[in-house]
Amino acid sequence: MKNIKHIITIFILIFSWELGSAQYSEKEIYEYIDTYKELAINKMYEYKIPASITLAQGIFESGCGTSRLASEGNNHFGIKCHKEWTGDTLLIDDDELQECFRKYNTAEESYNDHSLFLKGRPRYSSLFTLDILDYVGWAKGLKEAGYATNPEYANRIINLIEKFNIAKLDTLYNERLMAGYFKDYPNVTPPSLAEQTEPQEFANDDGENKPTSITVFTAFKDEFPAVEYPFTERSVYVNNNTYFVIAQKGDSYSKIAKDLQTSVKKLKKYNNITTSGNLKIDQVVYIERKSKTGKEEYYKVQNTETLHYISQKTAVDLNKIYKYNGLTLKSKVKKGDIIKLQK
């Protein structure tokens, strides 16, 4: 009888673990990738850890940022305290009761510490001899080095990368490296996600404006449907019934306006910008007025996102977002806020 109970208990634990690893939806996975892809690519440049590995680990370890460890401690990689940790901590039941985990002020700190954690420990040194595009070798190497006790850890990471085509980030890193994208980073250290902003002025249709800093919304070519657009040789894509192009190296609003046979004034209006600024590689530039409503009724703010970033990401006119939510140019949002995208 005891043996039967023991077998049932083991079955329940395995079944519960399987459920626990799938408590987040595909939509949440894609949103997580979109939120942290730029940070992962920059960490790939700085520490030579594949962006696909970093993101897949973040998804798996944090449940797409929904786990208690991630939501309360901004710890996306399950890193425990260890004797050298002097920062804040969070006690959570894991392999043992009330184990000590590192607590961070932001998710960006967690991503940086994850890179330092792997780079600074001899047991992971063999990983850095692998080809930087060899995510399979990296996943298996992490398991062999003892990063996780789960016997299926490597397969889980590999399956995430392949199912959601996360390896494209590693390829994009290589393309950016060849294009000199990182050449202006001092001491070969790229800025964190929070620092990847450039001062610009955003305006509503009444001409009011307020200087601010944003995290630039970028997109990959296979993330959105391509459309036929007769006025340019550029590839044009659609998001929420709104056409846009993806900035390339050396692009500016004036260059895009010339290629699309339109004016800089219109482009800046469509993107709610009053000063031209420089465009980052892969930055989304709308070439027509954004939609009045979103595909979804609501949007949940992720990490460092601003209202302008949300407007660019959802292709919903910024002024409409202000109106639907009773907000103004001076309004700020924080992680977890719910934003209406429909009247």
Give the SSE layout.
Elements: H1 2-20, H2 26-47, H3 51-62, H4 68-73, E1 89-92, E2 99-102, H5 107-119, H6 135-144, H7 153-163, H8 168-178, E3 200-203, E4 209-212, E5 226-227, E6 236-239, E7 242-246, H9 253-259, H10 264-270, E8 284-286, E9 298-300, H11 307-314, H12 318-325, E10 338-340
Antiparallel strand pairs: 1-2, 3-4, 5-6, 6-7, 7-8, 9-10
Explain what you see:
The chain has a four-stranded antiparallel beta sheet with strand order 5-6-7-8. The chain has a two-stranded antiparallel sheet with strand order 1-2. It has helices at residues 2-20, 26-47, 51-62, 68-73, 107-119, 135-144, 153-163, 168-178, 253-259, 264-270, 307-314, 318-325, and strands spanning 89-92, 99-102, 200-203, 209-212, 226-227, 236-239, 242-246, 284-286, 298-300, 338-340. The chain has 343 residues and is of the alpha+beta class. Helices cover 39% and strands 10% of the residues. The longest helix has 22 residues, at 26-47. The protein contains twelve helices and ten strands. Residues 5-22, 186-202 and 204-214 have low confidence and may be disordered. It folds into two domains: 22-186, Lysozyme (Orthogonal Bundle), CATH 1.10.530.10; 197-340, no CATH class. It is globular, with a radius of gyration of 22 Å. β6 (236-239) and β7 (242-246) form a beta hairpin.
